[in-house]
Design a protein that fits this description.
about 0% strand, about 210 residues, about 75% helix, 9 helices, homotrimer, mainly alpha
């Protein structure tokens, strides 16, 4: 998410916008559970920055982004707090937020792959690192809201992250020009996610009902 | 919490007492959920030591206090276990425990600021580090008890920690004599928390009810 | 779990089988909560590998096993996924899985002790490290399934881990031949756990009902 080279200014801007959007969606979830203002800001920060944080802790990749650059804390906490004032508007723009969330999923996945690549992780770990960066924040949000994580129950979310990571990681193997490949991956991942939302594609569920005796 | 210099003997003692008190309060929460003896001891340890542990993992500050000095595990597990025997008494002393918990909040916040300061974190991270140290243990407790974290729902708890940290951190900037400032911060933070309890000050809540369509 | 010396081939094989078995049991739990296929695989990985991961993060022992050797991810995710196809069979073999889980508990505890020993942790931490390795995966599973962790509520599970660790750790002190002691510990730990299951031994519970006023 934060490891993009400075030339990728567009992706940088997109990732900041996506961080803010994820914090704002989390703030709405906090509002549904009647959290107080502090809880809203916390949940915004943890949801938006949690994926990258878990990845860095698992890879032993210190210092964490937001420790080095507290601006990210201010951005996400501020976005969450602003949501309290403009909740109706945020809610009405829910389609826009789905798109922003999808952009975040793809951009964060790519950035997670980059970080793992930099610490010389193997290819499977590069992909897992992308997936953790893209998805784990939402899992933390659901745990803190006392839900079974949505990620585990529905939609092509983690799958989009895996496909994006796979596609992106082949670039490392093929040594293609970064820029072209980055744009291709972004377009592919985003389209996949948006189509999945539009046509309600879902992973098959595993339903097991028999009571243990 | 544990980073206080040896001269601060009073604070050291207070922090040990507060650790024990937090473990004992957590043990009562475990009892309300009918946990077994092992669960009671675990919940006591995790609640009392969890904030400092999360802080150290996020800052990459190893070894963890309780790894280096397992006495802390014995103290908190022992206090939790003792609570099983004297639950009624602990319950009856709930006001005393609220005060001890408030002392812990302030002392742990200051110690968390100290640790971040030692690893040369920036000022916002010093304050966040204090807040994590003071508050995250209770969040872990609530997650393990399968509740929405109390911290996110009510009371001036995290806010007290932030104000304490802000006040304490200005000392680093101003290079005042440590001892005076430490005492001042302690008194301010504790008073703030106790007044918040006494007069039931609360953060405003963010309530958002409209169902997502 | 993964730190066993190459001579312990039998234990190595047992630990792989136990990892797969824990992932498969977790997959059934996922099926009871109607998770999708991705959730099933995640829950399998997190349950089987989570204990060792938490231990390594707390001890600052990098790189994590599954980062270094992604085969473990493939093994546990694959086992969980296979469970979707053969859920009835897995369910019918529940006694076999209880035994495999017990083997895992003992083998992982011993491996956790080994890791802590290698990083020169003190004796109490060696035992705690074994317990975290053996038990924490199940706690993560229960948190993600939105349950109060089973570990905290019943059965001699953590206790078996502690006794196994204590017994195993005395070998470090006594400098006995490793092999003999390893086998002895394995037999003792496994017998203890199986007897506890067979005769429904339980930890006493701490029940505290009085409402806080």
């Amino acid at each position: 998410m934060w490891a993009l080279p400075p030339t990728d200014t567009v992706l940088q801007v997109l990732s900041l916008v996506a961080l803010a959007a994820q914090a704002m969606s989390a703030a709405l979830a906090a509002g549904r559970r009647r959290m107080d203002w502090v809880g809203v800001c916390f949940l915004g920060c943890i949801t938006a920055l949690g994926g990258g944080t878990i990845r860095d802790v698992l890879l032993g990749h210190y210092p964490l982004l937001w420790v080095e650059n507290p601006f990210y804390l201010a951005l996400t906490a501020g976005s969450a707090f602003a949501t309290i004032l403009i909740a109706r508007a945020v809610h009405r723009l829910s389609v826009a937020f789905l798109v922003l969330d999808a952009i975040g999923l793809v951009v964060f996945t790519m950035a997670g792959c980059d970080v793992a690549w930099q610490v010389n992780a193997s290819l499977p770990i590069v992909i897992v690192s992308g997936m953790i960066t893209g998805c784990a924040g939402g899992v933390l949000r659901d745990i803190l809201c006392n839900d079974v994580p949505l990620l585990f129950r529905s939609e092509l979310y983690a799958s989009v992250s895996v496909v994006t990571g796979l596609f992106y990681a082949t670039a490392f193997g093929l040594k293609l020009t970064d820029d072209v490949w980055t744009v291709l991956t972004f377009v592919l991942g985003l389209s996949f996610r948006l189509l999945a939302i539009r046509y309600k594609w879902e992973m098959p569920k595993f339903v097991f009902n028999e009571d243990r005796k």
